[in-house]
Amino acid sequence: MSSAEAREGGRVAKPAPRRSASDDVARHVVPADREILETAAPPSWNSYRPDIDGLRAFAVLSVMLHHAFPELVRGGYVGVDVFFVISGFLISSILFAEFTEARFSLTAFYGRRVRRIFPALAVCLVAVSAYGFVYLMPHELAQLAKHVFFGAGFLSNIALWSETGYFDAAATSKPLLHLWSLGVEEQFYILWPALLWLAFRIKASVARLMAVLFFASFAFNVVLCSTNIAADFYLPVSRFWELLAGAGLAWRRQTVLKPGARSFVSLVGLAALLASVALFTPEIRFPGWPALLPVAGAMAIILAGPEAAVNRTVFSKPAVVFVGLISYPLYIWHWPLISYAYVMRSGKPPTPLMAAGLLAVSFLLAWVTYRFIEYPVRFGAHRRRRTQIVAASMAILGACGLVTWIQNGFPERFPGLDMRKISEAKADPPFQPTKGMEVLDVDHTTVAHLGQGERKVAFGGDSLLFQYGPRVQQLADDGRLAANTYFVSGGSCAPVPSVIQRDYFAHCANLPGLLADLVRREKIQSVVLGASWVGYSGENVLVERDNRRLPLNSEEGRNAFYANLEDYVRMLQDQGANVYLVLGPAVHSRFNPAEMVIRSLAGFRIAADAGGEIPTATLRANNAGFDARLRIVAEHTGATLLDPFPDVCGSGEDCSPFFAAREPKFSDGMHLRPIFVREHLHFLDFLLK
Asked: Which of 316, 438, 495, 681 is most buried by a 10 A CB count?
C-alpha cells in the first residue's frame, strides 16, 4: 500500500472522496492480511482500483456536461445509473466481508456513511441556502427550503416525485434537484444491510435473495415506465435493481476472466457507455428497458478488472482518477451553480461560455471541499466526535429548511410591498379545487362538485376553465349559488374527443367521455366548454378523424379538431344540454409576475415596465383565428359564445396586469389568480345564481 493510504477501523483505505452515489468509504480495499470472502478472490479485487475512480470520472463528467450543454450531451444523465452500479459494488463488497467475518456493526456502517456523505452536502446546503436568502423571491426560497428539508433527510426523490405535474416548477429552477439520487441510495442502504443481516443469520442464499430483489425491482421499473414515468424515475423501488447489479458483481467477484476476455469485455463496456451518452435523449422513456445499456456497460468495466485494456489505458490515467476522487463534491456543487444561472436568466440556459465557467468553478469548489472539509472529517482524528458534529449540523440545516418553508420564504425580507405582492402572485396555485368542492381524481382528471339546486351546470376543459372555480365558491360562500355545479378538468386537456397526447397528458383522452357520462347520468342542463384553444396547435398533439391521425400544427389537423368539437357539441345537445363555448382568454407574457422582475448576480429588482398596460386589441388578435373557428362551430350548432375579456380587462382600450392596490391578476402569463377570479369574473354568473 502507498503512503497515501490511511487506516480506518482496522481497514486499509485510500483517503479519497467518493460521490455519495458510490460508497461509504474511500477505497475498494480490505485489510492487507485478510480477504473479503473467499481465498479464490482475485488479488486485484482486494486492493484499491484506480480504474473504478476513472469510471466515476466518466459518470460525473457525463452528468455535468449534460447539465451544462444539454443540446450537445443529450444522454449524459445515464451517469447517475453508472454511479448506482459502482455504489452497489463497493458497499456490498464491504458488507459481504463484514458479515462473512462476523464483524458487521450497524453503528460503524452508518458512522462511515455520515462521514462520507454529510460534510460536503452540509457545506453545499449552507451555501445554496445563504445565496437563496439574498437572491430568491419568497416563493422561490420557500421551495428551496422545502428541498433543503427533504434533502437533509435524504427524501429528495420522494419530494420531487410528489411535485411532478402540470404546474410543477421547471426542473432548472430547483438548485437541489440533483439530490434525488442521494435519496435513492440512502433508502437502499437503510434496507440492504438489514436484509443481508437476516440472510446471513438464517443462512439463506444471498444470491437467491439478490436475484429475487433484482427482478422484482426491474419489473416495477418496466411497469412504471409505461404507466407513470415520473414515479419510475424518482421512486427507489424502480431503481434498486441498478444498485443490486453492482452488488451481484461483488458477490460473484471470484469470477476471473482470461486476459483476452478482460480487454474484450472492457471494450464492450466502454462502447455501451458511450452509446448511451451519444444516443439517448431526454425524450425517451427512462429508465425502463433502456437503462439496461449503461448499467451493463458499467458492470462490464468493473468485471473486466484493472488490467483490462480500457481500464488500464483510459480509466487509470492520473488525471481521470483525480476527477473520480473529487467526483462526489463535484456532483454536489455543479448543479446549484447551473440552476442559479437558469434562474438568473429567467429560465434561459446559460451561454456556452458561462456554462464552461460554471464547470470550472465547480472543479475549484470540489477540490476545496475535498481537501479542507471532507478529507479532515473522514480521515482526521476524533472521528466519533466529528461524526456527531456533522450529523447534528445536518439536523439543524433540515430544521432551518422546515422553518423557512413554513414561513413561506420570509416575505418580510423585502420592505417594498410590490415585491411581496409579485412573489405572492407567483406562488398562487391556479389549478386547485376550492375548499367546498367534493373532488374525485379519475386517472389524473379532476371531477369536482359544488352546490345544490334543481339547476345543473357542468364545466369541461383544461386549467383555463377550471380557474373559474373560485367564482363558483364565492357565490356559494355568499349564499347565492343556485346550481348543482360540476367540473371535469385536466391540465392541458381539451374538451374535444379523439385528441391524442403522450406521457403525462395521455389521460386527457378520457376527459370528453367522462364529461359526456356525467351529462347523461346527472341530466345536466347546461354545459360550458373552455380551454386554451391556442395551445392545441403543436406537432406533438394529434387528432383522429376518419381513421386518420393528424398533427394539430397542420391545417388538416386543426380542421379535424374543430370538426370533432362540433360533433361533440351536437352529441351533448342531443342529451338535452345547452352548450356554451368560452372564447379564448387574455394571455400575455407581461401578465406573468416572474417577468416583472429583473435578475442580477446580486439579487433582483422590479422591472421598469412592470405593470404596463397592454392594448386589448393586441390580446384579442392573439386569439383571433381560434375564436373565428369557435364562432363557426357556434353558428353550425346553435351553441352560445361566452367572452371573459370584459371581466379580465374592463371596457377600456388597454388591459392592466393589476387590480385593486396593484395586485397582479395572474399567477403566470395565462392563469388568473383565485383572489381575482372570486370577485371580478362575472360572465358565468347568469348560469349559477
From this structure: 495
DSSP code at position 43: G
* Closest by Cα among 289, 269, 293 to 279: 293
> Where does residue 195 rank: exposed (0-12), middle (13-18), buried (19+ CB within 10 A)?
middle
CA dihedral 494, 500, 501, 505 (to 10 degrees): 50
Helix axes 106-135, 327-344, angle to 10 degrees: 20
Per-position DSSP letters for 187-211, written without gaps between them: HHHHHHHHHHHHHHHTT--HHHHHH
**How do beta strands 438-442 and 663-664 pair?**
unpaired
The answer to whether the beta carbons of residues 469 and 528 sit under 8 Å apart is: no
pLDDT tens-place string over residues 506-527: 899 999 999 999 999 999 999 9
Residue 34 predicted with pLDDT over 50: no
Residue type for 199, please? A
Q: Could you give the CA distance from residue 96 to residue 81 in angstroms, rounded to a whole number?
A: 22
Query: In this structure, what DSSP letter does residue 37 have?
Result: S
CA distance 672 to 112: 51
Q: What is the residue whose three cell numbers read 439536523? A: 395
CA distance 679 to 470: 9
As a whole number of angstroms, the distance between CA 210 and CA 192 comes to 10
Residue 611 φ/ψ region, left for φ over 0, alpha for ψ in the -120 to 50 degree band, beta for the rest:
left
What cell does 170 get?
A: 421547471
Select from 296, 319, 311 the least CA-distant residue to 266: 311
| pLDDT tens for each residue of 348-373 | 899 999 999 999 999 999 999 999 99
- Calculate the dihedral angle through the C-alpha atoms of 23, 27, 33, 35, rounding to the nearest 10 degrees: 40
- The C-alpha cell of 27 is what? 477505497
Tell me if residue 162 falls in helix, strand or coil. helix
Q: Which residues on neighbouring strands pair with residue 577, listed in sequence order?
A: none
How far, CA to CA in Å, does 356 sit from each of 242, 359, 361, 362, 418?
A: 31, 5, 9, 10, 36
What whole-number distance in Å separates Cα of residue 174 and Cα of residue 676? 28
